[in-house]
Amino acid sequence: MAGHSKWANIKHRKGAQDAKRAKVFTRLIREITVAARQGGGDMESNPRLRSAVLTARGANMPNDTITKAVKRGTGELGGAVIEEVNYEGYGPGGVAILVECQTDNKNRTTAEVRHVFTKFNGNLGANGCVSYLFERKGMIVLDGENCDLDAAMEAAIDAGAEDVEADGGLISVTTALEDLHAVETALDAAGLPVTSTELVQVPSTTIAVEGSDAMTLMRLITGMDDLDDVAQVSANFEIDDDLMAEIEEKL
């Protein structure tokens, strides 16, 4: 089944390196806090919080840290107010880019995001200029090296998944937002190795990017993803596999 999830897989491969850095915990804590503030502290009724907590557990975050983040979000504990801010713009080749941030200082975050767009031949746009091209979906990632693709596909589709794709040693399962928990539960019940679950922005259309634009685009996305306040970067692009392999070696 064909892919919207190529960038998701690139991100997860990069995430294996990011996990070595302390800031991955900071991002997860912010996501848990924002999710709890927006949807309440009950994981069963708050799919965004459930996704964030499961991802945090997968990153070996201590339960006490998770609990404090939830309580900070529900107001049971004090602390800095984390605001969710989205930025939209265009990268090389006319690629639409959606940058989701969580910050305690909007002015700082705006300046940093604008700088990355400008540095890599992109443009920060107005709110709404590209968000209509994306739809929020559930994304479950399995360890493809320890998981049979056919078994994963059968279990996922039977549970209501929309798409299953294997790439780079990973298997990614895309679901409708409301089906994320049911599909994840089915995969777990089938004994399949779920490595992470999260909410992602899936593009309705993609743009093929080639040559130097492809390298600059990936430098822009990587630079944006490296910002401390950035929670997720989404873009509607396609890059040839051979060219992507060359780019990944240089990043």
Description:
The chain is of the alpha+beta class and 251 residues long. Helix 2 (23-39) runs antiparallel to helix 3 (47-58) and helix 2 (23-39) crosses helix 4. It has three domains: 6-74, Arc Repressor Mutant, subunit A (Orthogonal Bundle); 83-132 and 205-250, Alpha-Beta Plaits; 134-203, YebC, transcriptional regulation domain (Alpha-Beta Plaits, 2-Layer Sandwich). It is globular, with a radius of gyration of 18 Å. The strands form three sheets. A four-stranded antiparallel sheet has the order 3-1-2-9. Residues 1-5 have low confidence and may be disordered. A hairpin with a 2-residue loop joins strand 5 and strand 6. The protein has helices spanning 6-18, 23-39, 47-58, 63-74, 106-119, 149-158, 180-189, 211-225, 241-250; strands at 83-90, 96-103, 123-124, 134-143, 163-167, 170-175, 194-203, 207-208, 230-235, 237-238.
Walk me through the topology:
Layout: H1 6-18, H2 23-39, H3 47-58, H4 63-74, E1 83-90, E2 96-103, H5 106-119, E3 123-124, E4 134-143, H6 149-158, E5 163-167, E6 170-175, H7 180-189, E7 194-203, E8 207-208, H8 211-225, E9 230-235, E10 237-238, H9 241-250
Parallel strand pairs: 8-10
Antiparallel strand pairs: 1-2, 1-3, 2-9, 4-6, 4-7, 5-6
Helix pairs in contact: 2-3, 2-4, 6-7
